[in-house]
Specification:
Blueprint lengths: L1 H37 L1 H4 L2 E7 L2 E7 L4 H7 L9 E3 L10 E7 L2 E7 L2 E7 L4 H7 L9 E6 L3 H4 L3 E6 L2 E7 L2 E7 L4 H8 L7 E3 L12 E6 L1 E11 L3 E10 L3 E5 L4 E12 L2 E14 L4 E8 L7 H7 L7 H12 L19 H7 L7 H16 L2 H11 L3
Parallel strand pairs: 1-4, 5-8, 9-12, 14-18
Antiparallel strand pairs: 1-2, 3-4, 5-6, 7-8, 9-10, 11-12, 13-16, 15-18, 16-17
Amino acid sequence: MRRLSIRSPLRRRLTILSAALFLVFTLVAVHVHQVAADTPGQTGKRIITIHDRGKDIGILTDQTTLRGVFQEAHIELDKNDLVEPSLDDKLVADNYQVNIYRARPVVIVDGASVKKVISAYQTAGQIAAHAGISLRDEDKTSIRPISDIVTYGAGVEVDIDRATPVNLELYGTPTTVYTQATTVGGLLKEKGLTLGKHDQLSVKDDTPIKKDMKFAIWRNGTQTITRRESIAFSVERIEDADRPLGYDKVQTVGKKGQALVTYQATMKNGKIVKKKQIQRVVIHDAKKQVEVVGTKASLPAGSHEDWMSEAGIGSGDYGYINYIFTNESGWNPAARNPAGYVGLGQTSESNLASACSNWQTDPVCQIRFFNGYALGRYGSWENAYDFKRDNGWW
């Protein structure tokens, strides 16, 4: 009996321990089930962690954009504040790290120019771009807290140290370079330019750098040089019969192209004394310019015969003139061919304009002008007709 009394407390302890373990396992299972139920992938909810001026805010939400998240969490933004990712990008992942960059006063010191802006951008380059200020690779920038808080408020100051422009002719090719160096020798080192045995420098390497100064590096003897040359763009003029004469508008702006042209050149004392093109590579094609010009004219009343009669032409020449003008312009006083010739009988615009100030709308004046041409060159309209018929031009 004593041995049974010893085991009974142990059995009770084991029974209590088993019950406790069962309770723990049950609670763990319930917790796991609850966590699984709250998992973003299961319910559409996602975890958003917002970093705002050193403060972290955690949000569990089913919103599909950050704009909705901010409205739900009552987080206010100024119009100049920046948010990454974007406010209206669709949220698709289970969790996001969101940064709010609060706008603050920024003073940009660019030489003698001082500009104040409100910006949330963080780097000097981003701030300058936001303020519409262009920077070159050689320009230096620094950023620090604003020193004059009373005038400008708490923010940052961006200082821009502009590089100096220098005109360098490098082996016959003129170019503008920008530098922070203080001497020509320092510029050469900065740009990685090493003079060869036959190279010459037009100034001493200790010459101080000055804005827009000029110097050259050349190599005496026969060599190849490459220059960047522009390619002129062509112009297409579209005649619009629904537009009045005098209407002239550029529909598509033309753009010059660029080509790299390599020459075999003979240099002497920095001068090209002889050169021959040996290669030409187009970098950018020229873009054609398209212009629309109005051709709708308010012409005098009457027929072609009426116009010729008013111009003083005898009826015996009507047939000859009609043949020439029909083939040259279709009796359109404002006609212009691809070569640039204009008018009823097609001549240079300067010739016709000097005789008829409103030549596009004055066929009578044009007939008088071409009458003088026909009689002066051919002696008669009949002879002009014969020449036109046999040669296709007159």
